[in-house]
UniProtKB/TrEMBL annotation:
One of its GO terms (cellular component) is cytoplasm. This is Uncharacterized protein, YigZ family. PROSITE patterns: UPF0029. It comes from Caloramator proteoclasticus DSM 10124. GO terms for biological process: regulation of translational initiation. It holds the Pfam family DUF1949. Residues 139-194 form the UPF0029 domain. Residues 19-121 form the Impact N-terminal domain. Belongs to the IMPACT family.
Length: 219
């Protein structure tokens, strides 16, 4: 990826009060625009009696983004929520900030600050994890080679997604691209030029923990 992106670790709902108005931020990791809109519509139904349900989302490595002021003065609600997501380098995330009007007008500046603060509170509560891209591949080996392969893989930065024991042993593995290239090279040398790897999918979204280790899902 040309830029480091983050997403949220978990779905959360947080509430704050600003001059008697109640702001409720719901934020969730999504995979695409369709999931984002499904989540947004769920929250709109949940809080259908609210004064406003403002939303924003970013997907597709920061390329696809959308927001709605949902009846607030133009530019005072959706844009500040979206700006928080952009400033935090978030991707594949959707947020809805629900407002119950408390009887005191906040003014344009006050709305911008309140919606932005509510979104930032949601991001902080959800936590962030770095996104990256990975390769998913199979290693297919005979049983007499499995011990050697398993020992080697235990020292690599990978996720073993599945292991099947049939006539042969098949391991499905997720790894960063540079790690995959190193594994393929090492195994070819280890088994005298035989390539026992078959690529299944490239450009798969994965996650990176605080120590730089690959994860399949946020933890």
């Amino acid at each position: 990826m040309s830029k480091d992106f983050y997403t949220v670790k978990k779905q959360v709902e947080v509430e704050m009060e600003e001059r008697r108005s109640i702001f409720i931020c719901n934020i969730k990791r999504v995979l695409n625009e369709e999931e984002a809109m499904n989540f947004i519509n769920e929250i709109k139904v949940k809080y259908k009696d609210a004064t406003h349900n403002v939303y924003a989302y970013i997907t597709n490595n920061g390329i696809s983004m959308r927001y709605s002021d949902d009846g607030e003065p133009q530019g005072t609600a959706g844009p500040p929520v979206l700006e928080v997501l952009k400033r935090e380098n978030l991707n594949n995330v959707a947020v809805v900030v629900t407002r119950y009007f408390g009887g005191i007008l906040l003014g344009a500046g006050g709305l911008v600050r309140a919606y932005g603060a509510s979104c930032k509170q949601g991001v902080d509560a959800a936590g962030k994890v770095k996104e990256s891209e990975a390769v998913v591949f199979n290693i297919v080996c005979d049983y007499d080679k499995y011990g050697k392969v398993s020992n080697y893989l235990s020292k690599r930065n990978i996720v073993i997604r599945n292991t099947e024991f049939t006539e042969v042993v098949t391991l499905e593995i997720m790894a960063f691209n540079d790690e995959f290239q190193k594994i393929r090279q090492d195994l070819i040398e280890m088994f005298n030029g035989n390539d026992i790897i078959k690529v299944k999918e490239e450009g798969v979204t994965c996650f990176v923990d605080e120590e730089g280790k690959i994860m399949e899902v946020p933890q």
